[in-house]
């Protein structure tokens, strides 16, 4: 497989960005709406979207791990980034360097 034609990293990074955004929206918009404004539907909707993006993130994390021969440390860091608010935004700088072959 030619690395230049491999869309694994760009796809993973896009999913990670969307997953990170959905997590922030869930934590800082939907949950306050639920508990402070009695609007539980916000968590239902945003939670479902975030859940789907989290599953996609985990699946693509495995694809990157497999295709790019990442180690368990990489997997743990990626997983932690997905459960720490703003984690995927921080890790994107590293993933961009990896994608470009600068790491």
Tell me what you see in this structure.
The protein has one domain (8-99). Helices cover 80% and strands 0% of the residues. It has helices at 8-37, 41-67, 72-83, 87-99. Helix 1 packs antiparallel against helix 2 (41-67). The longest helix is centred in the N-terminal third of the chain and has 30 residues, at 8-37. The chain starts with 7 loop residues before the first helix and ends with a helix. The mean pLDDT is 94.
Summary?
This protein is 80% helix and 0% strand.
Fold blueprint:
Elements: H1 8-37, H2 41-67, H3 72-83, H4 87-99
Helix pairs in contact: 1-2, 1-4, 2-3, 3-4
Helix fraction, binned, reads over 70%
Order of helices and strands: HHHH
Number of beta strands? 0
Largest sheet: none
Give the CA-CA distance, first to last residue. Answer: 19 Å
Q: Give the low-pLDDT segments.
A: none
**C-alpha Rg, in Å?**
15 Å
Give the helix tally: 4
**If you average the pLDDT, what whole number results?**
94
Instruction: Quickly count the domains.
Output: 1
- Assign the structural class, choosing from mainly alpha, mainly beta, alpha/beta, alpha+beta, or little secondary structure: mainly alpha
Shape: elongated
Strand content: under 5%
